[in-house]
Design brief:
Layout: E1 2-10, H1 14-17, H2 45-54, E2 71-78, H3 83-98, E3 106-112, H4 118-126, H5 139-148, E4 150-154, H6 160-173, E5 178-185, H7 192-202, E6 210-215, H8 222-232, E7 241-244, H9 251-254, H10 256-261, E8 275-284, H11 292-305
Parallel strand pairs: 2-3, 2-5, 3-4, 5-6, 6-7
Antiparallel strand pairs: 1-8
Length: about 300
């Protein structure tokens, strides 16, 4: 399990010399609003983002869907055999299904270079699916229902042939319904453009919306991030692109402004006058496990953003 620790070192006299501040105890207007957590439920940022992308009322490119037509959503996880997909994305999708946040009609496709059957994909992701939100009944039944909607297509990331076959399978599952398609790019940023080029040309929805979720890191620096955005916009509209950094959605990070501005203990002390240094600690109880090419370059951007 990954965790981020935040440590502040105060000057020795800080606790005794701090004076009450005249600043308001409310969060500043530029601080992000805090999400309200339901009692007993740990809100997962990735689930909220995916649910927002799937929301039919949100903006996105594609034809306007008539209200009387029955819709279906096809979710394709590109990089399905990777660590991020196994440990985060598929469990998040199942959590949405478990809480009835997914549409009535949906399918989940995995796409990656690894050779794998539908059944092998289901066996792989079943190892990470848990009813971690609560311990309601029918958990195993829900898992079985979810896994029956999971399928797999093998192909190269820059191969139009692979996405052509994916499009054929998606069309089969979408038969008789208004199709909407979501592509979740769980891959290194150096192949984002290849995938978007092929998927947008070959596997876009013929009548509904088509959207892409792009995981961090978004390039190595400001210049490479801008170049990546310009390249993606050669094939997509801005309304089709949804960027996500799940570490910025962790409860500790989200609640920093509340901890700072709404806490009577920290409010007068949390300033440059009393804090000597700030330490951010990124810790995991496992190794890179094959993620070295994508995980390590993202650590510094994550910590700097926090």
């Amino acid at each position: 399990m990954a965790s981020i620790g935040l440590r502040f070192h105060l000057h020795p006299a800080a606790a005794f010399s701090a004076q009450p501040s005249n600043a308001s105890s409310k969060p500043h207007s530029h601080c992000p609003p805090q999400r309200t957590h339901a009692a007993g439920r740990r809100t997962l940022y990735r689930e909220v983002v995916v649910a927002g992308v799937l929301d039919g009322n949100s903006s996105g490119a594609g034809a306007v869907v008539p209200e009387q037509e029955e819709n279906t959503v096809s979710i394709t996880v590109v990089g399905a055999s990777g660590d991020l997909a196994k440990k985060k994305i598929f469990p998040a999708l199942f959590a949405l299904f478990y809480e009835d946040w997914l549409p009535k009609h949906f399918t989940v496709f995995g796409y990656a270079r690894s050779k794998m059957s539908d059944e092998e994909l289901r066996n792989m992701i079943s190892m990470t699916l848990t009813c971690r939100i609560d311990q309601r009944e029918n958990c195993s039944d829900k898992m079985e229902q979810f896994l029956k909607r999971c399928f797999y297509q093998s192909g190269q990331y820059n191969s139009e042939e692979g996405f052509c076959e994916l499009d054929r399978k998606l069309t089969e599952k979408e038969a008789g319904k208004q199709p909407n398609r979501l592509f979740y790019l769980s891959i290194p940023p150096n192949i984002f453009v290849d995938v978007v080029r092929s998927a947008s040309r070959i596997a876009s929805s013929p009548g509904g919306w088509t959207r892409f979720i792009v995981e961090k890191p978004f390039g190595r620096d400001y210049e490479s991030s801008g170049e990546l955005t310009r390249s993606l916009k050669m094939y997509l509209e801005e309304e089709q692109i949804f960027r996500i950094d799940h570490y910025l959605g962790k409860e500790l990070v989200e609640n920093l402004s509340v901890l700072r501005f709404s806490n009577l203990v920290f409010q007068p002390l949390w300033s440059r006058d009393y804090i000597r240094n700030v330490q951010l600690i990124f810790s995991e109880d496992f190794g890179t496990e094959g993620r070295g090419g994508s995980a390590l370059p993202s650590i510094h951007p994550i910590l700097l953003q926090i």
